[in-house]
Design brief:
- This protein is mainly alpha-helical.
- Helix content is 79%, strand content 0%.
- The longest helix is centred in the last third of the chain and has 19 residues.
């Protein structure tokens, strides 16, 4: 029985790239920034969506601590 791991790897990379900026993906996985940027572009993710989500999370944390 053959096990094909590349499709699973690519799916996992696309999922991570959709949720993280390229620089974070690069540092987290130890891949070159150019590769991380390409994966982020392939996933269709935008940097503004990540920044907006991060901002919402930080505001939520501030409210909880007050």
């Amino acid at each position: 029985m053959a096990v094909f791991s590349k499709p699973a790897r690519n799916t996992a990379l696309l999922d991570l790239a959709a949720g993280l900026p390229a620089v974070v993906l690069s540092r987290l996985l130890g891949i070159p920034i150019r590769s991380a940027t390409r994966w982020t572009q392939y996933s269709g993710a935008s940097r503004s969506a990540y920044a907006a989500d991060l901002s919402r999370r930080q505001k939520g944390e501030l409210r909880k601590s007050q």
